[in-house]
Design goal:
The chain contains 16 helices and nine strands. By secondary structure, the chain is an alpha+beta fold. InterPro entries: CHP02677.
């Protein structure tokens, strides 16, 4: 099979990373060279060996030369013969025989490891709404931007840079809040101090996200309507191709594909594409879930603290209190309060009159007769249920006919499973009532799933699936509040938003 990707070719420059025996030595040599060559043109082997000896006690210059030779053969390091005319002794010749530098690939690999790979799990600790505002301002500048090829290319790169910062910041922060380490922190006392502030912080973020997203969606739709997106992308692609054509072999189609993918990724972040929810929708839901989790964890933590007292600790405190008390009478008093039985019952009766008794032993005995509680006998009551089967059957038949008539009448106005109010002629009262009931039923789904969809060239708020009688449908409300229409009927006209109803056909078994 033909391979057009060039993936069959190996890169020996990566071999030192997987070396089992001396991999650590090779990596340290590359790291030393990478850092030192930022301020020097080249290095000698004895300079590298000195730094390696500070890391490994059994390391020497001869070993360093062997390691450098291995890296040279693998293409990570390049060596040049030194200018011997400046060397004055054999010792200096031995130390300065070769000058070493990193190859371009070796430098790029180490740069990637140091600046990119090591920071993969280094997540942001701040959720910055200003990144969203900055991106909106950059994107808004395209509406009235007129410049040369270089200016447009630079402008587009600034937009993509702002978008990447925005995406990494928000996703990184949410990953951190969803991490196992953060959940462990939620179980600590100090979390309660942060809970209210963190929740308020996230709620403010959602508000900014929704507000700014509306503006960004409007900007993107406007750019697409005026074909500005295509013009800007073509100009930026041409400039990028000319720029990269000077430095190496590059295909125009690949650059074009990269730029189009950049825009599609940007667009799908804010707009629903092919029926899929936008990334902003996911971000909004994820943030709400985190807020709910924070509240739930805080409640669980408080409930746990209420019941997690130790009886052993309580007894120890009582023992300490008793030991600190020297008066035996005071000890008895404390004991009676702590261990006494305060569950007292009072017996009411007609006691005989008696003289004052000084001692309990002299008091007369009293015999008390306990009377049993009389049980109430419940009489059974029989009820006769009237048979209304025929009436129910007649009602069902009438209701079924009504539903069939609704379907039959409404089908005349449905085009490609879609009905929009502005496309309706003057309708009967029954049709009007059916449409109003569909809209009322659809609007009840607003809290289940709310998102913005692009239908044709218009933006709609999309509601969840709803069912009214035999109709399964989705309701779409115009994003523009001024987009309204008049629903004309024989009993009057109704001013309403230009709702769009999409009917969903259920597959028959």
């Amino acid at each position: 099979m033909k391979n057009d990707f060039g993936t069959m070719k190996g890169f020996s420059e990566f071999d030192y990373l997987g070396s089992v025996g001396r991999g650590g030595y090779y990596r340290n040599i590359i790291r030393i060279m990478y850092l030192d060559l930022e301020r020097k043109e080249y290095l000698f082997s004895h300079e590298i060996a000195e730094k390696m000896e500070s890391i490994y006690s059994d390391y020497d210059e001869e070993t360093c030369n062997e390691d450098l030779e291995f890296l040279f053969k693998k293409g990570s390091v390049v060596k040049y013969k030194n200018d011997y005319s400046q060397i004055k002794s054999l010792e200096e010749l031995r130390k300065k025989k070769y000058r070493y530098q990193l190859t371009e690939r070796g430098r790029l690999i180490e740069e990637f490891i140091l600046n990119k790979l090591n920071k993969v799990n280094s997540l942001s600790t701040t959720l910055d709404p200003n990144l969203l505002i900055r991106f909106k301002d950059e994107l808004k500048g395209l509406l009235e931007f007129h410049g040369g090829e270089d200016d447009i290319h630079s402008k587009w790169n600034n937009i993509i840079y702002a978008f990447n910062l925005l995406r990494e910041n928000y996703k990184g922060y949410l990953m951190e809040l969803n991490s196992f380490e953060y959940e462990k922190m939620m179980e600590e006392d100090r979390f309660l101090l942060k809970k209210a502030r963190l929740r308020e912080y996230l709620e403010d973020f959602i508000k900014v996200l929704l507000d700014e997203t509306q503006d960004i969606v409007t900007i993107i739709v406007t750019l697409e309507k005026t074909n500005r997106v295509e013009e800007i992308l073509n100009t930026a692609i041409n400039r990028e191709f000319k720029k990269r054509e000077l430095t190496g072999d590059v295909q125009y189609s690949q650059i074009k594909k990269n730029y189009i993918n950049q825009y599609n990724r940007l667009k799908s972040w804010f707009l629903s594409v092919d029926g899929e929810p936008s990334e902003v929708d996911f971000l909004n839901k994820a943030t709400i879930n985190i807020i709910q989790k924070i509240t739930k964890m805080a409640k669980m933590f408080l409930d746990k603290k209420k019941v997690s007292y130790s009886r052993k600790d309580s007894y120890l405190r009582v023992a300490e209190l008793l030991l600190d008390t020297n008066d035996i009478e005071k000890v008895k008093e404390i004991s009676s309060i702590i261990f006494g039985n305060f569950n007292i019952r009072h017996l009411k009766a007609d006691y005989p009159q008696q003289v004052e008794v000084l001692k309990i032993e002299d008091s007369p005995n009293i015999t008390m007769m306990m009377k049993p509680i009389k049980e109430r006998k419940k009489t059974k009551v029989s009820y006769q249920i009237k048979d209304r089967t025929n009436e129910k059957l007649k009602s069902l038949i009438i209701e079924e006919k009504k539903k069939q008539n609704e379907v039959k009448n409404l089908e005349r106005y449905i085009d490609n499973d879609t009905l929009t109010l502005d496309s309706l002629p003057v309708v009967t009262t029954d049709i009007k009532n059916t449409i109003i009931n569909l809209i009322k039923t659809g609007l009840t789904k607003v809290y289940e799933e709310k998102k913005i969809s692009l239908k044709g060239d218009k933006l709609y708020y999309e509601y969840g699936k709803a069912r009214y009688h035999v109709f399964l449908f989705k309701l779409f409300r115009p994003e523009d509040e001024n987009e309204r229409t008049i629903l004309k009927t024989f009993d009057g006209n109704y001013d309403a938003p230009n709702f769009r109803i999409e009917f969903i056909r259920e597959e028959e078994d």
